[in-house]
Write a structure and sequence with these properties.
There is one protein chain. The chain has one domain: Rossmann fold. Helices cover about 30% and strands about 20% of the residues. A six-stranded mixed beta sheet has the order 6-7-8-3-9-10, sandwiched between helices. It has a four-stranded antiparallel beta sheet with strand order 2-1-4-5, covered by helices on one side. α5 crosses α6 and α6 packs parallel to α7. The longest helix has 18 residues. The N terminus is likely disordered.
Length: about 300
């Protein structure tokens, strides 16, 4: 469980279903109109990726993330640190969730637990009905690589490779020779508006452009879920807004689930829902519904986080 997420930790995926969720303690109620897509819309979207797994209860909307009673205690040489205590959170496919909270509130810990990079001390986390903590190391690594896209604050691009080679890296590392590799890489670079920069190395790209390459790479395997820990932490406000808009577009147009940790209300405002952590607990949620209302998020966040 201690393996570091790498460029190849990306994934094959799942189609979207709907937005909003009942019975989740307010974490992910209906957003974006809260409707379920029509059957033909679901079918059309499902052709985008591998078939969606059936929900445990066919009557309920399928959850992509189901966090129940999660506690995380870090054991150091001298003492225990309680990072999360009793977190419940459910997320439906196709939702863009922002996690906000002050430094040390447990945001990264929660994201790492979702990514199976560390195991909960108590409670359980299901990603597409799979409990990563109960998998073998190898199965967990493969699950992460094939079903998740992970984006880092510092982009994690290989400096000696071009943008296109960095996007293709998960397949290179996996030893996969895909006949459609060039077309797929260019499709992704077009999505992030970098098709003209395919042959450029990271040092010839701005921070925002490097992060867009990293996002394209995270999408290579058509992941169901993208986890991003402060992806705009090194970027100025204009570049940050481009990244948030891109993430919102990926969630809306491709139906992918995105969980993004951010410190910035302006970033949270692009999300469907903001989950606020304080001292390792979910203290509330905000519903900017992707409307970009940073003032609403800033005000609501101040009330919840302090
Ligand atoms: N490996 C670790 N060993 C011991 N304590 C840890 C470890 N990782 C995190 N912690 C502690 O757990 C708590 C939550 O940390 P976490 O990194 O999840 O916070 P965060 O909300 O992401 O903060 P930041 O905004 O500064 O990134 C903090 O008190 C932190 O010191
Ligand atoms: Mg953190």
């Amino acid at each position: 469980m201690s393996d570091t997420p790498g460029a190849n930790d990306n994934a094959e995926s799942v189609a979207p279903a709907s937005r909003g969720s009942p019975g989740d303690g307010g974490a992910t109620q209906a957003t974006g109109g809260g409707r379920l897509p029509a059957a033909d819309e679901r079918d059309a979207r499902q052709t985008h990726g591998p078939a969606r797994r059936p929900a445990l209860d066919e009557g309920a909307p399928p959850l992509i993330v189901d966090v129940r009673g999660v506690e995380k205690i870090y054991q150091t040489a001298t003492h225990e640190v309680s990072a999360l205590s009793g977190v419940d959170l459910t997320i439906l496919p196709g939702t863009f969730i922002a996690i906000m909270g002050s430094s040390g509130s447990g945001k990264s810990t929660l994201l790492h637990l979702m990514g199976g990079l560390t195991a909960p001390t108590a409670g359980r986390i299901l990603i597409e009905n799979e409990d990563l903590a109960r998998m073998s190391d190898r199965a967990r690594t493969l699950f992460r690589r094939r079903r998740m896209g992970i984006i880092f604050q510092d982009y994690n691009l290989l400096p000696t490779l071009t943008a296109a080679e960095n996007v293709a890296l998960p397949w290179t590392v996996d030893g996969r020779r895909m006949p459609n590799e060039k077309a797929r890489v260019m499709e992704l670079l077009r999505l992030v508006h970098l098709e003209q920069r395919a042959d450029h190395r990271p040092d010839a790209l701005s921070g925002g452009e490097q992060q867009r390459v990293a996002i394209a790479r995270a999408l290579l395997n058509d992941p169901a879920i993208i986890l991003a820990d402060e992806p705009t932490g090194n970027l100025d406000s204009r570049q940050s807004a481009e990244i948030w808009q891109l993430m919102q577009r990926i969630a809306r147009e491709q139906g992918r689930t995105i969980v993004m940790v951010t410190h910035e209300a302006a970033g949270g405002a692009y999300a469907d829902r903001v989950v606020v952590l304080r001292d390792g607990r979910v203290v509330g949620t905000l519903e900017p519904k992707g409307g970009g209302d940073a003032a609403l998020v800033a005000t609501g966040y101040q009330e919840l986080a302090s």
